[in-house]
Each structure stands twice: as C-alpha cells, then as structure tokens.
Amino acid sequence: MSGFRKLVLALVAKVPRGKVATYGQIAMLAGKPGAARQVGMILRGIRAEEDIPWQRIINAQGSISTYKIGAGELQTALLKAEGIEFSDKGYCDLKRFGWRPKISPLDMTVDEETRS
DNA sequence: AGACTGACTCCAA
DNA sequence: GTTGGAGCCAGTC
Predict the structure, then answer these.
(1) How far is the CA of A105 from the C1' of C4 (A)?
(2) Domain residue spans in chain A?
(3) Range scoring the smallest mean pLDDT among A13-17, A34-38, A63-67, A108-112
C-alpha cells in the first residue's frame, strides 16, 4: 500500500459537506498532479464503512463520472441531498460548490493552481 | 519484469 | 456546446 492512497482518503475526508472536489484537485493536493485517474481507482476500492465522502469527488467538468460503475445515480442523489445543484444535463457549478482547500482572505480567489 | 486498465484531464477540431 | 486523441500513474494480471 502506498502512502498515496491514505493521503488521498484523508484529503477526500476533508471536503466539507455541501462542497465538491475534482479528482485532479485531490491528486494535486496529494502531490501527484497527474494522478487524477488513480484517485478514482482508489475511491473505487473503498467501502461505506471507511467514512469517506466519495460522492463529493467529481470530474473537472462538474459532472458525475461514476455512471460507468453504476454508482452515478446514487452519487447524484447523495450530492443533491447535501445541497449541490445539478443542471438538466448533470452538471454542477464548480464556482459555487467547488471546494477551496486553502482559505484565502477574500474567499473568492483561485488558490488551488496558478494557471498560466 | 512487461502489458493493460481505468470513478481523469487537457487541448484541438 | 460536443467528440476524439494523447498523456498521465498506481493497481492488477
């Protein structure tokens, strides 16, 4: 077992209720900027007993990626129960519901990645 | 060890 | 807005 898995789970557990994070975001915070897919694979293996809010992890487009494994409807229902709103096409607004791990004074600046 | 896979993401068309 | 291809890296066989 790599420490990466444990780190990812710890990060996911920190996502507050009513917020969502992306796979890439978790991977980046875990120190592996390109390991978004691995985050998904790790979460695939966890169980409900792990107390990990896996449903709060979605893809970078703000939509559900778990339809492949048949958990899409469940995840959507769980997120809606937390107050996350989805459009008709299954997209949610990451501007509003996206988790911002680092607290910034104005709470509105982008802190996760310094894009170009 | 080598090859395949995938709850992803970026970028071009 | 969508679709497709290449890159990515920890598991699994």
Answers:
(1) 41
(2) 3-97
(3) A108-112
Instruction: Tell me the CATH class for A3-97.
Output: mainly alpha
* Residue partners of A29: CB distance under 8 A and separation at least 6: A11, A101, A112
* Contact flag, residue A63 CB and nucleic strand B, below 7 A: no
Which tens digit of pLDDT belongs to each residue from A34-70? Answer: 999 999 999 998 876 678 999 999 999 999 999 989 8
Chain A window 76-105: residues with CB closer than 7 Å to nucleic chain B are none
